[in-house]
Specification:
Length: 370
């Protein structure tokens, strides 16, 4: 299970992935390392020149000190620590100190060799006297070892943690995407038989009439539209066109007893919307509403103003329909809206006397291009 598997309110999952990737990139970037080392050397040399007044071979000391420090830092980060922590388990508790001890012994051997080569390790011997060994400035040579070890461990652990967090976030994003896809397919599977049943019911009463061929063509177009809308969003104008097909089919079915008005804003442009979002509201009216009253016809209105799309259906309640009959389909639609639009999309439904009103409101709809 991913370490981070819950929706994050303050930062979007994709934003977190972007920033963690950016931090890892900066921490691994060669120019970043050069800049950090330059800054550290500058600060240390500035302090050293302030406190140390004795003469010394400045160039050779600086080259040895920082060359040795940088070499051992990257040896720890790129070789020793990855080898020890290849698998995170309790063995790391004793493996890491042992590895650092071995590294320390290697460093000591390197120090002695370099010291002998640079006369920092002096041998003095005279007859009838014991051999004496004097290590000059050994403290200054060993100090970098204790200096780079903490920094290398901190750097390595941070990189490891950031990589784990990034992996967890990507797994969470993939899991969320797969869950969303599965939910969408389940919704489609649930709606598919529902819509087809109502279409076939509409056509059944016309099977012996000449106009049945026209209705069948319209039904085929509608089913084809439904089958091929597997993407996240589709053109709103295409959705409206298929809503009008569904209305036309039912007007064929009910004839003069079907009253359904449509009012659509002229500024919809190239807006996109979830498939079946409007069609489901229209189909819901034909299944549960009373659309046979000329004085109180069913109504679909679509309006767009200042980035907000409002879709509203109004219909008289059928006398033989239970109050909770429409809940399942509308609940599915509400879940789909929330899944895709989050807080920007919502569905509200209410009874106003003998009238049932459903309103889909989508804010910032132009941001959702699918």
């Amino acid at each position: 299970m991913p370490l981070i598997d819950q929706p994050i309110k303050t930062l979007n999952r994709n934003q977190l992935i972007y920033w963690i990737t950016f931090v890892i990139h900066m921490m691994k970037n060669g120019w970043t390392h050069v800049a950090v080392w330059e800054l550290r050397i500058f600060v240390e040399l500035s302090l050293a020149s302030y406190f140390i007044v004795e003469e010394m071979d400045v160039l050779s000391s600086i080259l040895f000190h920082y060359g040795y420090t940088i070499l051992m830092f990257y040896a720890s980060v790129c070789l020793v620590l990855p080898l020890v922590t290849k698998r995170w388990n309790w063995h790391v508790i004793w493996k890491m100190p042992l590895a650092l001890l071995l590294e320390f012994l290697v460093v000591c051997g390197l120090i002695i060799w370099v010291s002998m080569a640079s006369n920092a390790l002096e041998f003095s011997y005279t007859p009838n006297e014991s051999l004496s060994v004097e290590i000059v400035n050994l403290k200054g040579v060993l100090a970098p070892f204790m200096n780079y070890i903490p920094f290398s461990i901190v750097y390595y652990v941070l990189i490891r943690l950031f990589n784990l967090a990034l992996k967890s976030l990507k797994e969470g994003r993939l899991q969320h995407k797969m869950t969303s896809t599965l939910k969408r397919e389940l919704w489609r599977a649930e709606l598919n038989p529902h819509l087809l049943f109502n279409l076939l019911t509409s056509i059944r009463g016309l099977i012996d009439e000449k106009r049945s061929r026209t209705v069948m063509s319209q039904a085929i177009r509608l089913v084809r539209y439904y089958v091929h809308t597997a993407g996240k969003t589709i053109s709103l104008s295409e959705e409206i066109e298929n809503c009008e097909l569904l209305i036309a089919i039912n007007k064929f079915r009910y004839g003069d007893a079907c009253f359904f008005n449509v009012k659509i804003s002229s500024n919809l442009g190239t807006l996109r919307i979830l498939p079946m979002a409007v069609l489901l509201l229209v189909e819901n009216i034909f299944k549960y509403g009373d659309f046979r009253n000329e004085e109180q016809p069913a109504l679909l209105t679509i309006d767009y103003h200042e980035g907000c799309l409002v879709i509203q259906t109004t219909n008289k309640i059928a006398t033989n329909t239970a109050n909770d009959s429409t809940k399942k389909g509308l609940k599915n639609l509400q879940e789909r809206l929330h899944e895709y639009y989050r807080e920007d999309g919502r569905l509200t439904s209410e009874l106003r006397g003998n009238t049932f009103v459903s309103i889909v409101k989508i804010n910032n709809i132009k941001h959702y291009t699918g």
